[in-house]
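Input record, target 12 of the design panel.
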């Protein structure tokens, strides 16, 4: 019996993944900075699915509580710019592993992205640091 393999970016089963297609959300995100390229990567386990709303709410509350301190720490560590495209306006904190896929509001799961890169990234798992 073969074990399923999952795309590291979108979390889908590899044979259903469309990250390699030219018009996929990942490809659009990578084209935004003109430097990245698609590297097929797989994982053995799927990301967590169906995260209960109570947990999402708790994680959002944690982020709101620590937002200013974490923002300042991210600026100190990585500079005040989008870590993907380099923009310096409309910066927001983004979860590398989204809350919907089981990510936590912890400093090691956060990065600074501009509003446009953050909305284009959506639920993809992409570490720009």
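The sequence produced for target 12 reads:
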């Amino acid at each position: 019996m073969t074990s399923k393999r999952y795309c590291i970016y979108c979390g889908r089963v590899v044979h259903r993944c469309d990250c390699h297609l030219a018009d996929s959300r990942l490809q659009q995100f990578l084209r935004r900075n003109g430097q990245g390229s698609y590297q097929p990567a797989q994982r053995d386990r799927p990301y967590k699915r169906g995260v209960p709303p109570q947990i999402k709410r708790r994680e959002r509350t944690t982020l709101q509580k620590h937002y200013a301190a974490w923002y300042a720490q991210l600026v100190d560590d990585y500079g005040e710019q989008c870590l993907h495209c380099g923009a310096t306006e409309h910066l927001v904190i983004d979860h590398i592993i989204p809350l919907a896929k089981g990510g936590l509001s912890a400093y090691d799961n956060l990065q600074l992205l501009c509003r446009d890169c953050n909305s284009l990234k959506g639920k993809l798992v992409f570490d720009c640091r």
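Helices lie at 25-33, 53-78, 115-121.
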